[in-house]
Design goal:
Strand order of the largest sheet: 1-2
Number of domains: 1
Structural class: alpha+beta
Shape: globular
Largest sheet: 2 strands, antiparallel
Length: 85
Amino acid sequence: MRISDPNVSKLLELDKAFYKENNVFYAEKAFVISSVVQTYNRLLAKRTIGEKQFLGCMELLVLYVNNKVDIYWKGRKLYEKEKGE
């Protein structure tokens, strides 16, 4: 994953778990965010999903970085779970 990817970088800016201490970057959620953005970009490019579905997924990522929901992959499907469930 490249932190320089603009989609990933913008989402990580929202997350307090992403920070730099000295020359070390800490990005607790970076792997999940990157995998979701890459997968959904690919699905959109292949026209497997529409723009509305893509934008819905990006909204879900905003909830994730703001600690409102947990998201996780199970097989090839993305799931969400509200915090506290």
